[in-house]
Amino acid sequence: MNIDEFRAELETRLLIEKQYLMQEAYSVNAEERLELLGKFNEKYKEVIKRLANENGVDLNESYPSENPSDSENLSYEQIILGKTMSVYDRLSDELYEEITNI
């Protein structure tokens, strides 16, 4: 599995989820709008699981280390979260700005 391709697909799908949540933001009150951030976090986790499943990746499986002498075995999930957290952070910041400016 190519992590960069995974990240790009994740970003595309999260952008779509963000748009759905923005539409929802217009139909709820201010308190409920902030709860959409929690929904976005759940969507992030769901999309990672869905993409992993589509690509036949077991998130609990150890990620093959590039350095054979590396004693730390990280799972696919840990690697994916590390490589995609910046995408999530950026999109959730954008969502926050947008929902607080309604």
Largest sheet descriptor: none
N-C termini distance: 40 Å
Dominant shape: elongated
Figure out the total of helices: 3
Query: Can you give the helix content as a percent range?
Result: over 70%
Overall pLDDT score: 92
Q: N-to-C SSE series?
A: HHH
Oligomer: single chain
Strand content: under 5%
| Rg calc | 16 Å
How many β-strands, per DSSP?
0
Low-confidence stretches: none
Structural class, from secondary structure content? mainly alpha
How would you describe this protein?
- This protein has helices spanning 3-25, 30-54, 76-100.
- With 102 residues, it is mainly alpha-helical.
- α2 packs antiparallel against α3.
- It contains 3 helices and no strands.
- The protein is elongated, with a radius of gyration of 16 Å.
- The longest helix has 25 residues, at 30-54.
Short description:
It is built from 3 helices and no strands. By secondary structure, the protein is mainly α.
Keywords:
single chain, 102 residues, mainly alpha, 72% helix
Secondary structure layout plus pairing:
Blueprint: H1 3-25, H2 30-54, H3 76-100
